Automatic annotation (TrEMBL):
GO molecular-function terms, A-Z: acyltransferase activity, transferring groups other than amino-acyl groups
Database matches in Pfam families: Acetyltransf_1
Protein name as annotated: GNAT family N-acetyltransferase
InterPro entries in the record: Acyl_CoA_acyltransferase, Bact_Acetyltransf, GNAT_dom
N-acetyltransferase domain residues: 3-146
């Protein structure tokens, strides 16, 4: 698998984000109320297999020290191959190179596979933050990153 940077306007990224949002709505039975929008300041990485983007994840700035993961998604046919784990490691490297000392994310309580991935990669639960406050289906996690010397 190749991991490459793609703009948020890339048609394959847009298709993956749309699929991710659709799957979230189906998984949560419409309870969560997540929006379809992806912030304009998200830097995306795509997991590419045989020339086709089959996974995506984004990183945006929350504050000077903190990056936030956004829109992590792997097409169902490609799950179970370690793609999400590789993509997460690449996003953490991107965050490290950007000088962040911490990376955080929000996911749904109804997504045990996602929670398992994040916790197995060293993410720890944190209080719900930002736009997710008040959403009973939100679960937030964070991880400390090494600091650039």
């Amino acid at each position: 698998m190749l991991i490459e940077a793609r703009p948020a306007t890339d048609p394959e990224i847009a298709a993956l984000v749309t699929a991710q949002q659709r799957e979230l709505r189906e998984a949560d039975g419409g309870r969560d109320g997540r929006g379809m929008l992806t912030p304009a300041d998200v830097r995306f990485l795509a997991g590419v297999v045989n020339g086709r983007a089959v996974a995506c994840g984004g990183l945006r700035t929350l504050d000077e020290e903190t990056g936030e993961l956004k829109r992590m998604y792997v097409r169902p046919a490609y799950r179970g191959r370690g793609i999400a784990r590789q993509l997460l490691a690449a996003l953490e490297e991107l965050a490290y190179q950007a000088g962040y000392s911490r990376i955080c994310l929000e996911t749904g309580t109804y997504l045990p596979a996602a929670i398992g991935l994040y916790t197995s990669c060293g993410y720890e639960p944190i209080p719900v933050y930002g736009e997710h406050v008040g959403n009973p289906y939100s679960a937030c996690f964070a991880k400390r990153l090494p600091v650039l010397a």
